[in-house]
Amino acid sequence: RIWADRFMLIAGDRPLDDYAKADGRVFKDVLLKLPPNWTKHPQLKDLPITEAATRACELCLKPMSITNYNKVVGFVSAFWNWAANNFDEVEKNPLQGLKLRKEAAAFEERDPFTIDQLSRIFRAPLYTGCKSAKSWRTKGTHIPNDLGLYWVPLLSLFTGARSGELIQLYVSDIKTENGVTFLDINKLEDDKKLKTKGSRTRIPVHQTLIDLGFMKFVDHCRRDKRTRLFPEMAKGKDGYYSSPFSRQFRRVLEGVGAKTNKNTFHSFRHSFEDACRNSGVPRDVMYALQGHEDP
After folding, report:
1. Which of 100, 84, 102 is nearest to 92 (CA)?
2. At what angle do helices 115-122 and 148-159 cross, to 10 degrees?
3. Residue 13 DSSP label
4. Residue 207, by phi and psi: left (phi above 0), alpha (psi -120 to 50) or beta?
5. What digits encode the pLDDT tens for the residues 157-211?
6. Per the confidence metrics, is the pTM higher than 0.90?
7. Backbone region of residue 38 per phi and psi (left: phi > 0; alpha: psi in -120 to 50; beta: other values)
8. Contact between residue 251 and residue 135 where contact means Cβ atoms under 8 Å apart
9. Spatial contact of 89 and 16, defined as CB atoms under 8 Å apart
């Protein structure tokens, strides 16, 4: 909704059948000048979007990444696809074909975590003892093992699941069949999203997670009659659970000295893939666990 409104600010508020490819190109030109988080930049935040783009060029600010640009184009393009399906007068999507090709393959954009980085993460006060749930960076005696901030990194380490898939889990998504306890990654509820059709999957709960008390935590959630597993983790303004959490987890990485230009929370997924390959797990099994569509 935010970016659809910004498109309208740039192209004007007109009848749906009055927009053309030229409007999409103008929108593209503005996006390619804007830096990431431009609404928080002290010299841009109070400017209209077109003026902010011009000013960003004058200041020689580095523009948003191709990934973020394509994400924004996808947001607005989704509106036009919806409009074309619901209104006869909409025949064209002015943003069609305006996404940019990325030179690097997806697996080259992020590094897996090294053993040293993983050790730094899981020896942080968050896991070994902190002052309180809010003061998770300060050493103390409290283990916040009733929070998503504690469990989501551990779950990703042992499942390879994306942060959004884990944060949106319902308590009812932790299931047991034929003696196997697993996470049911699905979008049965309206507040859930999956990246692709193949993202729906079932991932067994690793014994180490059980030893660390994950199932005790789940039982506690059931007794409290929670709906979501991590209700304290809210969606961002963009509608994704992963957005606010990615910023929080960045602070975790920076706090323990494990942050580089090529690692994020998604590095857990790459670490999981490497572990599967190194352990001789067949590719089709690895793909099934991670929700990849096997080509």
Report:
1. 84
2. 150
3. S
4. alpha
5. 999 999 999 999 999 999 999 999 999 999 888 888 887 777 888 999 999 999 9
6. no
7. alpha
8. no
9. yes
